[in-house]
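Technical annex B. To support the medicinal chemistry partners, we prepared a structural model of the target in complex with 0O2, based solely on the information shown next.
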Amino acid sequence: MELKRTVDFKKLKSIKAELTRFLMTYKFALDEVNTKIDILKQEFEYVHDYSPIEHVKSRVKSPESIIRKIYKKGYTPTLPAIKENIVDIAGIRITCSFLSDIYKLSEMLESQKDIKVLDIKDYIKHPKANGYQSLHLIVEVPVFMSDREEHICVEVQIRTIAMDFWASLEHKIYYKFNKEVPERVLADLKEAAETATQLDKKMERLHKEMNELKTDVHGDDEWYELLINNERFMLPQGFIEPSLDEDKRTNE
Ligand code: 0O2
């Protein structure tokens, strides 16, 4: 027997409006956190002379994925249950150049007054069994709507380029094999994760050495820092002072 269901279009329209409004708050929360990250990036570049952030990617989880996750967790698919139990509807992934940048960046975010850290999962100090590494912060930010203030969760994943390379390949492999990855591939992935860790450690050491060398070469009092069109230049005293003297003579 064919089963017929009456679709109430009015009801459907109101569900759609409610869902859109719900997801909008997550988009606004992402905008807020993205702005914070952009400010930190620009300021860090100015103060430390390099950018700790290589890429930032953000997304709002699709309604299908949200529903799949809420069923998987065993909750009824209502908006309040989703809001309370799915903490990664809004997600930001930050790729850093060096290991130490991950923790610097995380501390900078954690110390902001309007950010409440709800949870930290450090898969760098404690990698997952498959080799996955990343620092996950679950933060809550206020979002001011026309008629209310909402507190919205955002998942911030911070990792190095090597960790990101590994995670994106692992993700592809996992789905390629329909989540049943052969043992041999799993072992290779684990080995690749260890190689990525070694690479990160080596790059960190090189970065430190390079910084020490830079301080030696620049030798604080012999170099001037100039800001030209918002770009920072380090110029030697020997280059600047003759021009300053020239200016002084012309004005006398
Ligand atoms: P997607 O498509 O990236 O959003 P929770 O989210 O807290 O309820 P869980 O699993 O305890 O569930 O959270 P966890 O461990 O913090 O992982 C959340 C996200 O981290 C995942 O989101 C992935 O993005 C990433 N992740 C965690 N483990 C792995 C891993 O082994 N490999 C890869 N490539 N990524 C991982 P989603 O929702 O699974 O997927």
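Notes passed to the chemistry partners:
Helices lie at 9-48, 63-72, 79-85, 99-110, 161-176, 183-218, 237-251.
The longest strand covers residues 149-160.
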